[in-house]
Design goal:
Blueprint (H helix, E strand, L loop, with lengths): L9 H7 L20 E2 L23 H7 L2 H17 L4 E2 L23 H16 L4 E7 L12 E3 L2 H8 L1 H6 L6 E4 L3 E2 L2 E2 L4 H11 L5 E4 L7 H6 L12 H10 L5 H17 L10 H15 L1 E5 L8 E6 L25 H8 L4 E6 L8 H13 L3 E7 L18 H11 L5 E6 L15 E4 L7 H9 L13 E2 L15 E3 L8 H4 L6 E3 L10 E10 L5 E9 L5 E11 L10 E10 L4 E8 L1 H4 L1 E3 L4 E3 L3 E10 L2 E10 L11
Parallel strand pairs: 1-2, 2-3, 3-5, 4-6, 4-16, 5-8, 10-11, 10-12, 12-13, 13-14
Antiparallel strand pairs: 6-7, 9-14, 15-17, 18-19, 19-22, 20-21, 20-25, 23-24, 25-26
Bound molecules: alpha-D-glucopyranose.
Length: about 650
Amino acid sequence: MKYDLKKLTLDEKITLLCGTDRWHTYDAHGKLPVLHLSDGPSGLRKEDENDQTVSATAMPTISTLANTWSREMAKLDGETIADDCLENNVDVLLAPGVNMKRTPLCGRNFEYFSEDPFLAGTLAKEYIDGVQSKGVGTSLKHYCANNCETERLYQTSEVDERTLREIYLSAFEIALKAQPYTVMCSYNLINGVYAAENTKYLKNYLRDEFGFNGLIVSDWGAYRSAYRSIIATLDLVMPYCDKHFDNVKQALEKGLITEEQIDFCVQNVLNLLERCESKKEITTTKEQRHENAVKIAEEGIVLLKNEGALPLKNGKILVSGTYSENPPLGGGGSSYVKTDYKQKTLYTLLNDTLGNGYSVDYANVNLFSLGQTERTQIACRKAYDSDTVILCVGDDGAVEFEGADRKDIKLSPYHENFILNVAKYNKNVVVVLYAGSAIDMSAWIDKVNAVVLAGYSGEGVNESVANILSGKVSPSGKLSETYPLNLESCNVGRNAVDLCERYTEGVFIGYRYYDTYGVPVLFPFGHGLSYATFEYSNLTVTKLGETDFEISYDVTNTSNVDAKEVSQIYVKDVFCAVTRPEKELKGFSKDLILAGQTKRIVQKLDYRSFAYYNLALEKWHVENGDFEIMVGASVSDIRLKAKISIERDESTQKSVY
Ligand code: GLC
């Protein structure tokens, strides 16, 4: 090892276990290099020595990245942000977050991938690979069961063992395959013990069972007791805490902790120092990073509804709505990125992109001189004279932000009324929606022709939306979370009550609930339309081993438009001794399929594709019997189905009826 623990005094070792300020580690009187840790998931947020935020590329948020369903885009996202980190001497990027979207109310859902751990973990792994391929570290966060923001520093997540393993730990397990430099523990308590001092989940699970050998860092201000944190093997407390040194020293003198336990954490800090010394070269220019932001946004935008208005037809097109000039690039909180990129407005870009035969007009409803009524009247009058109206509405960082949850999932009354009023005067309204989590559209969805989910998609959002509306690019995004009909139809909605969030729904979150119990939704998990049409055929299932199978099938682009398609594989355990969801996502592939082309897609299923966590056996268990393999364009649009039977050795089974 390059940095020898023996050369540090006891005081230096104790001091090394806490940051020296908000972002830096301790240098042990010049014996060690100093690391700089910085947010965040949708681009670099670095505060310089004057506490000024440096400019960086504002990438799409993780929720938009998830809607790409693209391993390639996830890796590109990580690589792109890493270049901004290299340019600004940042050693560890505090991202990505893989917390499950358990309720659409969670204020930080825009920072998270999905309601499904397989999708979240798979994309997070690629993102981490992307960042770390450049020698910049990551921080897989927030470990764990941090699924609401209400009272997040004091809230207990009360989760049964099976639910924890199958839903709330599973994405971490998958993402750990990328060997993140660090894991960040969350603020909340997990089953009654603060995550920062929870030996069961930090040491017994994360380190001993999942094999994580990197550094565990606290969320900022998440630590409670210095010695209990060290016993739980939390290595680094952030940010600086003036009581930390004395607390650890006193605990050592009282015999509450040993120097060996301190040394274990110190060694993890020294290992991180060394791991952060293999930085690579910057390979992108600022312009290329911007282009990457556009590319990822294009693949993450989801065409939710389209009754023919898109791609835009010749004629008079009106652009209006609060966000038609400056749409929100992200949600609020520590993931904010300061970009100095000046986007052209959607109106200007459409003018530039669309050819002859189009005329694009703009109803600017953002003039401070206008009252709400006047704003709406301007838009309505112009809408009446237009062939198609594009309305840019949604939420922003004042609605979806870290530290608080939404109370509802509808748009503001102003935006709802704006849509309803304009729709009285034009039958071809295209709503471009900015949001980081599910929106209840029941008040207006039947009044509009098309809905494009632009999400919170960074500094390239206007370009990507213009390219999709114009038909230059076919939309290929798909929902990574269910859009329910309304909040009342969600099985998980309430925020933390008396500080205890009881996960009584068990594994049945998101589509695992709606699809299993036949609860109607507005748009299902995995849904997203295209300008192309696709047919699925020739499903073949080849047994490679006891629980290893190769799944192959054809997807044909039956249109005259080149486009990408996300095909999804779901597994059903037909008869099981415990209740299991009707379907569980266990594979997906995003493929460019040219007009008229047929592509053969091959995916693999393994033990964990069929297993559930059996509490009596205390392990992941595959029960002998029948399974269904389903291939679909969404969880509700199953195109192909096959049945298989798994017969493992009798000794692996428990007695059945
Ligand atoms: C915040 C967030 C965490 C972030 C950290 C540093 O409270 O929970 O995601 O990385 O503090 O800003």
